Amino acid sequence: MLILAIESSCDETSAAVVEMSDKRRQILSNIVASQISIHRRYGGVVPEIASRAHTEVISRITYEALTEAGLCVGGSDNSDNSDKVNSYNSALDAIDAVAVTNAPGLIGALLVGVGFAKALAFSHSKPLVAVNHIRGHIAASYLAYPDLEPPFLAFVASGGHTSIIDVRTYTDMAEIGHTRDDAVGEAFDKTARAIGLPYPGGAEMDRLAALGNASNIKLPSPAIAGEGLEFSFSGLKTAVVNYVNTARMKNETICREDVAASLTAVICHAVVEKLALALKSTNRKKLVFAGGVAANTHLRAAIAALCRDMGVSFYVPPVSLCGDNAAMIGAQAYYEYIAGNCADTSLNAYASV
Ligand code: KG4
Ligand code: ZN
What is the pTM of this model? Predict the structure, then answer.
């Protein structure tokens, strides 16, 4: 089954074509247009600017995805408009379904993708499949590991989400752990900003953490004490900001590497502690780590070590599939489609679920 997928929930506009069946999970194209350079000057994503930027590029990105998948015939980026429309139309005829992220995310950004996907699906009489963004992150692991099947435990960590999810089947899952406030990616980004790194600072914090000393700065654990599976990252962020402000007032130099290493160490420790509890309580033997923060080398290593110790198989997608991309949305769409979860013309977008 050929699925054209659209993702526009935050600051990446993405379109992909995936080929999915019982035995095959193949990415034919996966185009991602990042808006990071646009939002960087504001220190974070500006929702209205994000929506407008999606609107500007979504047609071109989709055309590129169809072309790279080998479905656009005869038209090129330089060809005249009617050639392009014909080739767009014949490519869409070859598609079996259109998938789109409809929740959660920035509402204006989601609406751009939903409106666009709806128009494509209904003008070409194709089924429309709505995909939850977090389920999409989990499904990135199906593309990376062709034999992976539920049940398993998933830890989804990104700029907007921190969830421990019990994945019972491809479409039946329950959140068993979460953050009470900020997401883990937000903690990386906001503390990065406090030490003067550009948005989004997660990847740079990862690099700096390898160079610092984690025992030089005492930070609070983001794990809520006890057997529950809850985190709180806002206190951790405040502790780093207070540390930085106090050091500045005293005219002390701030060692960014130590800040990054200390922050990363408490996050790794908390995540490992809660994942160990979650694995024990569910007795799952497979663990998937997904979302933008799954690119973090320290967390990958810490969770891999935990899985080794507990005799659990560990799955983490390549970095290219950890961040927001439409291929993961297409992968989940296949399982939603075969479960009968199709959308109609009334499909809406939702900021939260
Ligand atoms: O999944 P994603 O692309 O978007 C959301 O759904 O939010 O995740 C983006 C988040 C950002 O907070 C970014 O700083 C973080 O993932 N991130 C990282 C790393 N690479 C990206 N955080 C820590 N270490 C990394 N290497
Ligand atoms: Zn995401």
Answer: 0.96
